[in-house]
Write a structure and sequence with these properties.
Distance between the termini: 39 Å
Strand content: over 45%
Number of helices: 0
Radius of gyration: 13 Å
Helix content: under 10%
Structural class: mainly beta
Number of strands: 11
Low-confidence stretches: none
Shape: globular
Amino acid sequence: QVQLVESGGGLVETGGSLRLACAAFGGTFSGRTMGWFRQAPGKERECVAAVSWGGGRTYYAESVKGRFTISRDNAKKMVYLQMNSLKPEDTADYYCAASGTFYSDSVAARVYEYNSWGQGTQVTVSS
C-alpha cells in the first residue's frame, strides 16, 4: 500500500498562492491516477483536481478551473497542486489520494475511486 504525505499548507491572504506537494512512499505510484481532495468543516470531501497516471489528462472542479494546476513527477513519486488567486472559500483540509485502479483511460474524480489517502494539510485563506 502506498503511503502519501502532504505538505505546503498554511495561512494565506485572499489572492495569494500556495503550492501543495504530496510524496509517495512504497507501493505502486506511477500507474495510478492521483487526486487532490478537500474537505471544509461541515461539508463533504470533494475532488478539486486529478491527473492521469501518465500526466496527460486532468480533471478540475469548476470552482478551481483556471486557478489551480495539478502536476506529477513519476520519477520522484510526487504530485503537486499549484493554487493561485486563492479565495476564502478555498479554506479546507486538502488531501492527496491514489486511485484504486491502474493504467485507467479515465481520470477518477470520486472519493470511492481512491483507496490510498494522506493525512491532509490545512489551507486557510483569510479575507
